[in-house]
Specification:
Blueprint (H helix, E strand, L loop, with lengths): L3 H4 L10 H4 L12 H9 L8 H6 L6 H9 L3 H9 L5 H7 L3 H4 L12 H14 L15 E5 L3 H12 L3 E5 L8 H5 L7 H13 L3 E3 L10 H5 L4 E4 L5 E2 L12 E3 H13 L13 E5 L3 H13 L3 E5 L26 H4 L3 E3 L2 E9 L2 E14 L5 E6 L5 E4 L2 E4 L3 E2 L3 H7 L8 E3 L2 H4 L4 H19 L2
Parallel strand pairs: 1-2, 1-4, 2-3, 4-16, 6-14, 7-8, 7-14, 8-9
Antiparallel strand pairs: 5-15, 10-11, 11-12, 11-13
């Protein structure tokens, strides 16, 4: 076993200069050299039981194997190993929180291996060298499958079903396929050229896309159901969680996805301007997750006067909480590249009411809360601290509170579609809001279920 993990330190910062990157929407990460990446891959201990593979990665990527291939400079072999389990490593290596690194054995005493950056380098080498080819089926079947939604789950299912020979058509309400990848995730995290090149490969493999077509409005789901042998619903979780407190009707209060989608459409030329602009405004983001962080980065790039992000949950600990022991994903404080660019972060604040003038929001009344923690350190319940109310001034409020899961019955009712054995759900439509990597896994599982159903 190599002892390089004891000699080589993990590269601590992979981003472009904050003052530079905040002026554009290009990807924030700076490229690493092959030498740097080979050195980082050498830090992998080649564990006999690789928890990164078995517990951390939902896809079951062969992480120690492709790390060793990179260490030896065998990029083609690394690509073959990675692509054997992962449908879209160019997406996960950019937007996945790297669950695998939370399970890296080296992370017990030192810093985990840079698995995500190594994966990103592998797939970029593959595209640069034309190793990424359309996956053509050996035999094209007569049976047809229609997929509703061209997000990560729908695309992953389309790939697997197409490989099996089915005639696959994917319907998407937006102008371009990609779903959350295209419209929800900012360009500075995932360049849309990366999405477009993958869609071209999928089209070359025989998958058809019908865009600008909203199933349930432009065409009925029942009509499409009658023209295929199986249907997969993979249209995400369309209902954002609202904050129904006094003053919600004031102008200047928007859902996070409306804000993020508007900027993405402007960047791609689909819109001539952004519908919601943070320029010159005091921006308040309510919600402490990744979507809220994306709003912070976008607001700064639009020229916000100031940005604050508040969260009702307590501030996480600086290091791994005892409540999430290795090899589980650690509960701890994380600072994103967007936070680095300028943001005041506050925790344990409950929003009570919006205040305004002339019909526009001018602030949010908040009250501190105190959490009761479990014996392991995880928050359990909270109580408000009376007499400590304050008003946070804001001209633009972005609600980043997540999305509501619709059960199968409600989802099918929205589409006016009867429940039937040939109708399947995948991704956020089935499981509720989750990570891109888990949506991909669920799409692959749904494809296998459809294949078994149609092969009976």
């Amino acid at each position: 076993m190599s002892r390089d993990f004891m000699k080589i330190e993990r590269i601590g910062h992979v981003y472009r200069n904050a003052g530079e990157r905040v002026r554009d929407f290009r990807e924030v990460e700076a490229p690493l050299t092959d030498k740097q990446l080979c050195d980082q891959a050498a830090r992998c201990m080649g564990c006999g039981i690789p928890f990164c593979h078995g517990i951390g990665c939902p896809l079951g990527n062969l992480i120690p194997d492709f790390n060793e291939a990179v260490r030896q400079g065998q990029w083609r072999q690394a690509w073959e190993l990675l692509s054997s389990t992962s449908s879209f490593p160019e997406f996960t290596s950019r937007v996945c929180p790297a669950l695998c690194e939370g399970s890296c054995t080296e992370g017990l005493n030192l810093e985990p291996v840079m698995i995500r950056q190594i994966e990103k380098a592998i797939v970029e080498h593959a595209f640069e060298n034309s190793w990424v080819k359309p996956a053509m089926p050996e035999k094209r079947l007569k049976r047809k499958v229609i997929i509703v939604g061209a997000g990560p789950a729908g695309l992953a299912a389309a790939v697997q079903l197409n490989k099996a020979g089915y005639q696959v058509t994917v319907y998407e309400k937006n102008h371009f396929p990609g779903g959350l990848l295209r419209y929800g995730i900012p360009d500075f995290k995932l360049d849309k050229a990366v999405v477009e090149r993958r869609i071209r490969i999928l089209e070359e493999s025989g998958i058809r896309f019908e865009t600008d077509t909203e199933v349930g409005r432009d065409v009925s789901a029942g009509y499409l159901r009658g023209r295929c042998d199986a249907m997969l619903i993979a249209c995400g979780t369309p209902v954002p969680r609202d904050l129904k407190i006094p003053g919600r009707e004031l102008e200047g209060i928007h859902f996070a996805l409306e804000f993020l989608q508007g900027q993405n459409r402007a960047n791609s030329g689909e819109a001539s301007s952004v519908p919601v602009s943070a320029k010159g405004k005091r921006v308040l983001v309510i919600g402490g997750g990744d979507t809220g962080s994306d709003c912070v980065g976008t607001a700064n790039r639009q020229g916000a006067r100031s940005v604050m992000q508040i969260e009702i949950m307590p501030r996480p600990p600086e290091t791994r909480s005892p409540s999430t022991p290795w090899p589980y994903w650690p509960y701890q404080l994380r600072t994103s590249s967007s936070h680095e660019e300028g943001c005041v972060r506050r925790w344990e604040l409950q929003s009570k009411a919006f205040s305004g003038a002339d019909g526009r929001v001018r602030g949010v009344e908040v009250i501190p809360v105190r959490w009761t923690l479990s014996p392991s350190g995880r928050p359990q319940k909270f109580e408000e601290l009376p007499g400590q109310t304050e008003t946070i001034e804001a001209d633009l409020v972005l609600l980043a509170l997540g999305f509501l899961k619709l059960d199968r019955k409600t989802m099918l009712e929205r589409l006016k579609l009867e429940d039937a054995p040939e109708v399947f759900l995948a991704g956020d439509s089935a499981t509720g809001p989750s990570l891109v990597v888990r949506a991909i896994v669920d799409g692959r599982k749904a494809a296998a279920q459809i294949d078994r159903y149609l092969s009976r």
